[in-house]
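EI: anyone free to look at a 365-residue chain?
SC: sure, send it
EI:
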Amino acid sequence: MKLPGHDAIARQADEHLVTHRVKLPRKVVEHPFRQVAKRVIMALLVLVATALIVYFDHDGYNDNSDGSVDLLDSFYYATVTLSTTGYGDITPVSDAARLVNIFVVTPLRVMFLIILVGTTLEVLTERTREEWRLNRWRSTLRDHTVVVGFGTKGRSAIQTVCATGLKKEQVVVVDPSAKVIEAATADGYAGIVGDATRSEVLKRAEVHKARKIIIATQRDDTAVLVTLTARQLNKGAKIVAAVREEENAPLLKQSGADAVITSASAAGRLLGLSVLSPAAGMVMEDLIQQGSGLDIVERPVIKAEVGKGPRETDDLVVSVVRGHRVLGYDDPAIGTLELTDRLITIVRATPGSQIAPDVRPIPSS
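SC: here you go
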């Protein structure tokens, strides 16, 4: 695979100046049309109430044109009064009418103006409110998971991780497509619109404070550049990347990825296994679907299991993680289980049961 130079890509990015922004999940709000309709109806109700108040006390008002105030004049007076136009052709002359204007009509005028300018005020304060949310989000975000690419691979990966107990608030999605980020925020994830090969975009995702980074881009060369940038910003995060071609996997590991998954080869192996044994293919597919049927999980050894062999535990042990090595369950080097070991087991997933995600990266052997 021929990769373009990092400097060349950086120059291209500078020339095209990719814009990026942070988008947080929004709460479900009422449709804007309904909000406007409600405010219009409320304003009309205030107008009608004011007009009726004036009409019931029309003897206390004077019209400069004919001296009397009818229903139409009452609505006219209510309109010019509530809108603060105030032509002065109809005025309250009695003490009762003036008291009503002071204690009733004036509060109604204030209410009317608040209703009308409410939408404008909301638009003006939206930017300040959003900036406050972003600052609060950045200050509280720690040990989160960053997902670069929210296609089929990225979406499936984060759904699997969330099935183990990770909260959606602890996930940040980075993708250059605004529509994809809209879909991510609709699912409850925070999103960054931008090119993840740029360090500025990853910094907005707080990648330097992340615990796990999942790279599921569409192109292998992009995955390499994202891995290099992410590893430069965060030396201790666990980085897992997906590639299409198996020959590019070593390059991803050299770039700083802890684990590399070859999507095309993995799918091909599952297809071949399903051809040879459909039942075995179904079992393998069940194992990789977290939260239903059989699950493959990693957990620490408990005190009651120390000194026992892998086959003597209650769970079905597949492998034992000891230090930097991953040993098969029948490897003679295991001997008996130690308290510092971790077990990779197959368990039956039950509704409501969750296995805490691994918080310690397994170094590659």
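EI: DSSP finds eleven helices and 13 strands in the chain.
SC: 👍
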